[in-house]
Amino acid sequence: MNYQAFLIKYAEIGIKGKNRHLFEDKLVHHINRALASVDGNFDVTKEMGRIYVHMDGEYDYDGAIEALGTVFGISGICPVVITEEMDMDRLKEITADFVKAVHPEGKAATFKINARRPWKKFPKDTMEINADLGEAVLLGCPWMKVDVHHPDATVNVEVRQSGVYIYSLEIPGLGGMPVGSNGSAELLLSGGIDSPVAGWMIAKRGVQIDAVYFHAPPYTSERAKQKVVDLAKIVARYSGRMRLHIVNFTDIQLAIYEKCPHEELTIIMRRYMMRIAEHFAEQDGALGLITGESIGQVASQTAHSLLCTNAVCKLPVYRPLIGFDKQEIIEISQKIDAYETSILPFEDCCTIFVAKHPVTHPILHVVERSEHKLDDVIDDLMKTALETTETIVIGS
Ligand code: ATP
Ligand code: MG
């Protein structure tokens, strides 16, 4: 089938009143961004309260569907045939051919025509269009019966002055809200499975993402860093342009390792990560932090540990995976194409400085007291870490 346009459907939630324009403009922006790398000429327009993508000439259909499938806020994608032939006999033929191609025998057994007539000067009204085109489909597609209540296939026919739009299929979109319609947040992005999924989930709610990665050269390699850059690119396919701050965390980790009780290493390290991430959040205008934590997954993610980590944060911390099992997280990771990258076996800075027996029930005032052992050095170390941070921009 040769489609000339896509009708973009989006959920109505949250887009009433003043927000509607913001929502639609962001959606148009992200549709354009996603289609920029697809072969073809695409023109994204807002028409009569709907968003359309018009194609001029040849284009890559599969590529376009795949690209639109990365845009948050789209609930469905309907490929549309547009004809400028307004003669009723020709319309009957075109509609019957359309149904033959889109709903061949064995795929659908019942249908209804759902005509709309925004162009009021068209000589037939919607009832007549429904009846005439229905009859043409019955004649042209003998396997089809009419069912106006629960049809397998609804054939939408919209008669406009510029042409007739015919569509029936709806390919599900990602849902959610267009990125940028809900402020921004700072993602603590590691090379693991969880944090890319966490960032993706928050972006799905319309939040723009910037990210911070803590590396510890020479204990962590360039390849581990490259893996995080690759994961950031995967998240950015969905969330759009992001800043990635790469913080050299080695000296802070070494100081913690030297001066603090080993069973508290991870928890103290996590608290410094949150502090530094909050610094970049402020710099980037982010309204919250995002982590991939899930209750009980590891020692640093028990309810007690989360309390201690959270205690250093002024901003809200979004933990979208908090109640997820690992398997549920893996399923999303696979769906967003991050999994294969996440499981590449490069060391994580946290796996090198781990204690044999980390505390699982840290007590906040005890941890705070241990941190005082860093008092002489930590201000300088933090200052250097911030000054030497490398920031790269990822995505478009
Ligand atoms: P992930 O799979 O996301 O690495 P994890 O199960 O390994 O998570 P932890 O290592 O305890 O869990 O990290 C918890 C969260 O802290 C991560 O989801 C991430 O948001 C953040 N984090 C951990 N290490 C780093 C790092 N090196 N750089 C940035 N953020 C990190
Ligand atoms: Mg990790």
Structural class: alpha/beta
How many strand units?
15
Averaged pLDDT, please?
94
The rounded Rg comes to 27 Å
Count of separate DSSP helical elements: 14
Task: Give the second-level CATH assignment, the architecture of the largest domain.
Answer: 3-Layer(aba) Sandwich
Tell me the distance between the termini.
31 Å
User: What are the distinct ligands in this entry?
Assistant: adenosine-5'-triphosphate, magnesium ion
Please bin the fraction of helical residues: 40-55%
* CATH top level class name of the largest domain: Alpha Beta
CATH topology of the largest domain: Rossmann fold
InterPro entries: Rossmann-like_a/b/a_fold (IPR014729), ThiI_AANH (IPR020536), ThiI_fer (IPR054173), ThiI_N (IPR049961), THUMP_dom (IPR004114), THUMP_ThiI (IPR049962), tRNA_STrfase (IPR003720), tRNA_sulfurtransferase_ThiI (IPR050102)
Main location: cytoplasm
Binding site for ATP: 188-189, 213-214, 270, 292, 301
Subcellular location: Cytoplasm
Any descriptors?
ThiI_AANH; VC0802-like; binds adenosine-5'-triphosphate; nine-stranded mixed beta sheet; 2 domains; elongated; nucleotide-binding; alpha/beta; 396 residues; Rossmann fold; 14 helices; six-stranded mixed beta sheet; Rossmann-like_a/b/a_fold; binds magnesium ion
Structural features, described:
It is a single chain. This protein is an alpha/beta fold and 396 residues long. It has 2 domains: 5-172, VC0802-like; 184-394, HUPs (Rossmann fold, 3-Layer(aba) Sandwich). Helix content is 41%, strand content 20%. It is built from 14 helices and 15 strands. It has helices at 19-35, 61-68, 88-102, 126-140, 194-204, 222-239, 250-259, 265-284, 303-310, 326-335, 339-342, 349-352, 364-371, 375-387, and strands spanning 5-10, 41-47, 50-56, 74-83, 110-116, 145-146, 153-159, 164-167, 171-172, 184-188, 208-215, 242-248, 289-290, 317-318, 390-394. The strands form 2 sheets. Strands 1, 2, 3, 4, 5, 6, 7, 8 and 9 form a 9-stranded mixed beta sheet that branches. β13 (289-290), α9 (303-310) and β14 form a beta-alpha-beta unit. α8 (265-284) crosses α9. The longest helix has 20 residues, at 265-284. Adenosine-5'-triphosphate is lined by residues 188-190, 192-195, 212-214, 273, 291-293, 297-298, 300-301, 348-350. It holds the Pfam family ThiI. This is Probable tRNA sulfurtransferase.
